[in-house]
């Protein structure tokens, strides 16, 4: 029987490649913001990007859960092929939606009217939307095969794929920077984001197909998940991701209706990118927990490991506030103007609960997923959304604060409420995994 120390070491060996992958994924937007801020008309292009990116996230939201679905359900070749078919159908439908918004008058309805983006941003935003048409399909394909690789013990391949994506993203950003007399910041951003996920998707697909052919048994027809069961399993996850990512568009729309909107929209991608880096370690706890939770005797060790990661994430966040790291991020790397940098630095301390709480949120979400209680995801996200909408409404109604301050405070409160509810729902099934050995 393994000691707790040995179990934590095994958990860490699963965790670190996933953490690196999440960290690299988190630096996408900071790299994009850093280049766009150094190109012509930085404030306009950054603000347009902060409108487009949340819309792209909403469109791709239903496909984000494919990693969890393939990790949880692809146990043999028959189930693998069924989930693959489901993924491809879903990706095709979402890509049609993205293309329709980008290339038809729907763009003005969605971005201009629903999002309330300032008129001067619309031409820049539309260019980026068009450049990101391949984005959703590439991400769905990539995440499906990432789940296959993680399930079969090849999480390091996921990290390699992320490095490939970052290489393509940075390469295209640098090309756009060199050609800044001919291309806009938003065109460069859209091309970089799309090329990166396409390259990563091709790599993960190549490695994932080989893994499935080699490691999966054919499986029994009686164990094939039915279409009805698959739909019931994924619907709460899809709705959860739509709400989870949709609040970013909601936040952009709300900031557009508060005082000093362009400044708030300009610093939002820089701050949200930094927040994703802070949350990346906790986010990796989701797949890590899902990988080990069914192993006998691993629950308590994984819970302790999650606490260590929560503390580390909080200390990393604190270092950004009390050391020159924060100033370097905003003024050096992101190249914000002094006014925008000051706005961002004042907003950062307002999310002081998020680094710690987010880690436990991912831990409890993995328990719900392992127990096939995915309805808990939707319930907790509805609670998050209620808090966010209430706080954003107060900000719009009062017109006393910059939108970026309101959204950061709202996030801090909403994620705490979401995590408390997720913990409440997970406690009911923890006994299934809390084995004594």
What do you see in this structure?
With 437 residues, this protein is mainly α. It has one domain. Helices cover 80% and strands 0% of the residues. The radius of gyration is 21 Å and the shape is globular. The N and C termini lie close together (7 Å).
Write the layout of secondary structure elements.
Layout: H1 4-26, H2 28-36, H3 42-64, H4 66-73, H5 77-103, H6 106-114, H7 122-131, H8 135-151, H9 155-178, H10 185-215, H11 227-255, H12 261-292, H13 299-322, H14 325-333, H15 338-347, H16 354-370, H17 375-398, H18 403-427
Helix pairs in contact: 1-9, 1-12, 1-13, 2-9, 2-10, 2-12, 3-5, 3-7, 3-8, 3-11, 3-12, 4-5, 4-8, 5-7, 5-8, 7-10, 8-9, 8-10, 9-10, 11-17, 12-13, 12-15, 12-16, 13-16, 14-15, 15-18, 16-18, 17-18
Compute the separation of the termini in Å: 7 Å
What class, by secondary structure content?
mainly alpha
Order of helices and strands: HHHHHHHHHHHHHHHHHH
Strand content: under 5%
Q: Which stretches are low in confidence, meaning pLDDT under 50 for 5 or more residues running?
A: none
Tell me the major beta sheet: none
What Rg, in angstroms, do the CA atoms define?
A: 21 Å
Any idea what the shape is?
globular
- The total of helices stands at 18
Task: Tell me the helix content.
Answer: over 70%
Average pLDDT score = 87
Question: What is the domain tally?
Answer: 1
Number of E-type strands: 0
Main features:
437 residues, 18 helices, globular
């Amino acid at each position: 029987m393994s000691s707790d120390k040995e179990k934590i070491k095994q958990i860490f060996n699963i965790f670190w490649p996933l953490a690196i992958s999440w960290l690299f994924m988190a630096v996408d937007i900071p790299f994009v913001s850093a280049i766009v801020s150094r190109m012509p008309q930085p404030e306009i292009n950054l603000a347009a990007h902060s409108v487009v990116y949340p819309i792209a996230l909403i469109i791709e939201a239903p496909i984000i859960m494919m990693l969890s679905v393939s990790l949880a359900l692809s146990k043999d070749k028959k189930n693998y092929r069924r989930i693959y078919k489901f993924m491809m159908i879903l990706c095709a439908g979402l890509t049609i939606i993205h293309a329709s918004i980008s290339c038809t008058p729907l763009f003005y309805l969605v971005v201009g009217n629903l999002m309330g983006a300032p008129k001067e941003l619309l031409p820049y935003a539309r260019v980026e939307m068009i450049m990101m048409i391949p984005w959703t399909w590439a991400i769905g394909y990539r995440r499906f095969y990432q789940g296959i690789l993680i399930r079969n013990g090849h999480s390091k391949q996921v990290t390699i794929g992320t490095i490939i994506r970052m290489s393509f993203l940075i390469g295209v950003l640098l090309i756009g920077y060199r050609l800044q007399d001919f291309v806009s910041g938003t065109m460069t951003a859209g091309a970089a984001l799309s090329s990166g996920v396409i390259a990563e998707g091709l790599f993960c697909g190549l490695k994932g197909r080989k893994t499935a052919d080699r490691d999966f048994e054919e499986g029994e027809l009686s164990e094939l998940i039915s279409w009805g069961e698959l739909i019931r399993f994924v619907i709460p996850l899809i709705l959860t991701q739509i709400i989870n990512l949709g609040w970013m568009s909601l936040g952009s729309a709300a900031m557009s209706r508060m005082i000093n909107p362009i400044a708030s929209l300009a610093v939002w991608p820089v701050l949200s990118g930094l927040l994703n880096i802070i949350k990346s370690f906790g986010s990796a706890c989701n797949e890590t927990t899902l990988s080990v939770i069914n192993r006998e005797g691993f629950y308590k060790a994984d819970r302790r490991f999650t606490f260590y990661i929560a503390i580390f994430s909080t200390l990393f966040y604190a270092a950004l506030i009390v050391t020159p790291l924060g100033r370097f991020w905003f003024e050096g790397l992101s190249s914000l103007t002094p006014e925008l940098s000051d706005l961002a630095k004042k907003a950062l301390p307002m999310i002081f609960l998020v680094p710690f709480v987010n880690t436990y949120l991912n831990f409890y979400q993995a328990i719900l997923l392992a127990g096939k209680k995915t309805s808990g995801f939707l319930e907790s996200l509805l609670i998050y959304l209620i808090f966010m909408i209430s706080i954003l409404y107060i900000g719009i109604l009062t017109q006393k604060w910059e939108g970026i301050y309101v959204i950061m405070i709202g996030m801090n409160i909403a994620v705490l409420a979401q995590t408390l509810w997720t913990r409440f729902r997970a406690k009911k099934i923890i006994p299934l995994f809390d084995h004594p050995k």
